Amino acid sequence: MSARMAALLVSGLLAASSPAQEVAAAESAPVVAQAGNPGPVVDLDAVVVSGVQPGPGLWRVSKGDHVLYILGTQSPLPRDITWRADEVRQVLGEAGAVLGSPGVTIGADIGFFRGLTLMPSALKAMKNPDGATLDEVLPADLYQRWNVLRQRYLGRDRSVEKKRPLIAVYELYRAALEHNGLRQGGVVGPVIDQVLKPRGLKRTPTVLDLKIDDPRAALADLRKEGLGVRDLECFSGTLDVIEHDLPRIAARANAWATGDLEALRNMPGVQDQVDTCLSAWTATDVARKNGLVDVEPRIRATWLAAADKALQEQAVSFALLPIDSLLDDGAYLAQLRQRGYRVVAPDADDGQDETGGENPVDEKAGVATRPASP
User: FRET label pair with 320: which of 117, 227, 266, 301, CA 20 to 30 Å apart?
Assistant: First the structure.
């Protein structure tokens, strides 16, 4: 889960009056760093790669002669790369099922015209309560940091000043990425769609579908929600990223583009701050009242159920997961192995014996090293 996930969960609630909004975790999640001391803003001193790049290899999950190939996705990525997706295209051409990214949809069972009547309320809920501006709701030192970065990356547009901090800081983050030659999305999805369309095959959705029974009441409650401690921690941590961590983000983007899994493994994780940003949303009264809690494990369970079904029914299937979920051998791969599947990383030693016994785990790689059945 990410700061963007948290912000879009809020946005999903705001948009509950319109068709359900998918919040995909795989190709769009920003990196959020641990909080640090403010200092001079650091633009990229690393070169962002461009041109044709191979991307990472595929993880294989198998039982018997059924194989699920998983691509680890990363965001942001270098803006000017072309992905040489030969291996992925080959698998997609054979796959009987293609699983979309894990994520969540937040919607409401209401008619289209009623949805239109709720849109003004949704737009109001994106703003701070009582029409306050960011300089009125943020501590002075935090606002000063924000204002410097806003002028740098958003220019003279001050409309963002009336938006809620989580939404405003995400807009700033996107602008900073673009300024530094990075982009969110637009690399993996088009390749998948290009292969699947001639086959008449659609992606199997794996998102958790959450419904809001009374969107008008939820919007009214959200408009009353003030700024909490966790909001400030998420806001400040995201400013830290923009001020100091763009070179590291660029290095991660380059590592994905060039298929350097070892470099990705050796880069520090960001889960603590990610959880802080998510909790800024899930800790609200609005989220609790509408059942929008324990979202992450429910997202994971939904994806795993779809993976189980694909592996049981299809000889070859394909799926997407955030690459960090694959590299840290977290709940996704661990639970697949608990279900009796063999899991092998793209850079595992293919010369290892795969006969009998349990599926061993390479402690350095954090993934199973025994090759899957062909």
Answer: 266
